[in-house]
Fold this sequence. Notes:
This protein is 76% helix and 0% strand. The chain has helices spanning 2-20, 46-79, 83-117, 123-146, 148-154, 157-173.
Amino acid sequence: xxxxxxxxxxxxxxxxxxxxxxxxxxxxxxxxxxxxxxxxxxxxxxxxxxxxxxxxxxxxxxxxxxxxxxxxxxxxxxxxxxxxxxxxxxxxxxxxxxxxxxxxxxxxxxxxxxxxxxxxxxxxxxxxxxxxxxxxxxxxxxxxxxxxxxxxxxxxxxxxxxxxxxxxxxxxxxxxxxx
Length: 179
């Protein structure tokens, strides 16, 4: 009840002040759109834009590499190198495509999802995504050689041993570049 009486008395005081032509104690009164912008956000500086752009390029590269790694992992787990069962299911050509191209299909789908989800539609961002895909596709064997324990958890110990033995045999059979 006190609040109601206080509001009434303040309103009456205000009416008296208006009627007497007293000064406006509330500040300026704006009617319509104000030309003055208050608390506006500062425009981005060139260095912050460049930093964000570089960060997005690096992020795009790693998203592409992650998409390829996920595609290889998904294809390995889903198909498990079972070409006989797949040829019975999909036919000769379908089994071949599923085993040999399944990782690329999964990686491409993930890359497209990443492009739309994280707005990586710019020319350089898309290029960085594709470079990440290709880098992981070509460099996964080197990662397996450097970290076989991690990849034996992802894939299987037999697969990692097979890759390591093929890599070791390939290094021994290469000619010496010095001569």
